[in-house]
Amino acid sequence: MLEVDYLFDGGTPCDVERRRDGSIFCRPFSTVSGTQHFACGVRVSGDADEFPVKLTVAWPRRWRGEDVPVGFEPEIARRMTAPDSFVRVLHRCCVFLPRGGERWERLINVGVDEGSETASVVLSGPGVVATQRPYTWAEHRSLIGWAREQPACVVDEIGRSREGLPIHAVTIAGSDARAPTVWVQAYQHVTEYTGPIVIDAMARRLAAREASEAASRLTWQFVPAVDIGGLRYGVGYHVGPRSSACVRDRNPNRDWHEGTWPEVAAVRSFIEAELEAGRRYGLALDLHNGWDRAHTSGACYTVHPDSAGVDYVNRQRSFVDWMYDHTDHTEPGQYWQHDTAGRSFTSYFAQLTGALAHTVEFSRHLWWERASRSYRPIEPTDPERFVAQAVDAIGGYFDRSHV
């Protein structure tokens, strides 16, 4: 018998309807309208003779002001009630994991109906359908377990989340003790999966000594998931029959000045203790995802903290331009002023250390190819391709700069 469920690692709660024509209709109810955190993941099971079958995913219902819980930060409330819909780009990013398979595949036959705000695909067999490649709790645990066994890695539990889950930092020491440290963190926001995927691949590449000599001279520190509770429970977090998932009342990336989030406080305390012990940072990358650009990809934000001078801004731009010249990811010139009045991680880090600090935002649906100088739909393996380029590019930047 054909069945649809979401009770698995990476699944997202949905209302599921089997229609008279035999097709499946899903409407996620765990994410809210207008939020960049939209995601949908369902598992379709059944015998071979029950396929092909049409699966349709609808945008979640619109939230109204009265739906927003009391006490939510105005920025979060605006995102929860905004009229945004990203259905129009889902044909570029939906993925499929066949039953028993190990690799995600991009679905190329996704149809989009902007009028009804739905995306549909015909499945030829059982498996998991998702609106983007997820990074699961099992993958995170596998990464931390693997790192503990690697001679090149040091794993620290740097704190606990509000749910009591451990937050980990992984350090891979460079071959040159005089070289600076590169800090890379991800997953401040629920469903922004590309960041942990990138960190997972970076750590494994560096520990296996597959990076360039210049990159291997640097020390690297990784926090794969700042909001570890959001990764563990994600949009599948069941609080009640109509869960709001891990929708937070505040944006953690606006809390770095005050540090009221236990997760933010834990990361801050670790970095500050490392500085006190004599560590010298040269760069921080804060990895994110975005939906909001229909025709361009993500962006490296050039940060202008309150105390920044012309020299610092020029250094920031120099690094961004270097990365554009040496990686596929996003179109050159995509840097912006990330104006958060000093509340974001990058502003905190830059003011604390004087080092370069960038928000790196990955598109969920597009990828820039330098060779063709054009965008194309994102493939599930693109984050790993980016890592192979980016690790060596960062090493080359510091080698060139003699920092």
Task: Report a brief summary of the structure.
It is built from nine helices and 19 strands. The protein is of the alpha+beta class and 403 residues long.
Question: Tags for this entry?
Answer:
single chain, 403 residues, alpha+beta, Immunoglobulin-like, Aminopeptidase, 2 domains, seven-stranded mixed β-sheet, five-stranded antiparallel β-sheet, 9 helices, 26% helix
Characterization of this structure:
With 403 residues, the chain is an alpha+beta fold. The chain folds into 2 domains: 3-130, Immunoglobulin-like, CATH 2.60.40; 137-401, Zn peptidases (Aminopeptidase). Helices cover 26% and strands 24% of the residues. It is built from 9 helices and 19 strands. The strands form 4 sheets. A 7-stranded mixed beta sheet has the order 11-12-14-13-15-17-16, with helices on both faces. Strands 1-4-10-6-7 form a 5-stranded antiparallel beta sheet, with no helix packed on it. The longest helix is centred in the last third of the chain and has 20 residues, at 382-401. The chain is globular, with a radius of gyration of 21 Å. Residues 236-245 have low confidence and may be disordered.
